[in-house]
Fold this protein.
Amino acid sequence: MAEGKSAIMMMMIIIIMAMAMVASAAQGTATFYTPPYVPSSCNGYQNDGVMIAAASDTIWNNKQACNKRYRVRCTGATNAGVPQPCRGGSVVVRVVDYCPKGCQGTIDLSQEAFAKIADPRAGKIKIEYNQ
């Protein structure tokens, strides 16, 4: 009987933790940019791979976002062009660049990162993201 109660308690803890993680995700929009990805505002001519992003003013914080990792998940369309752009799942990217004023999204993902979570034909998607 005690084992059953322990299992139930453990399951409740897992559910509460999962809910807290979902609740802490910020919402915004994502666009994408294409190669070449260097130079970048954070790391100059260093090759940072392709799972990267440029942060808008919302995240940038005077370069404080440099090299921080964010988990990004597509939550829906922002236009009628691709009504269901999301592919499911999420992608983890590292911020290596700045998306200047006029940036069309909260975060500008590399083309490869965007394609993992959404159809690139959408151009811009709604997202949830957290560090």
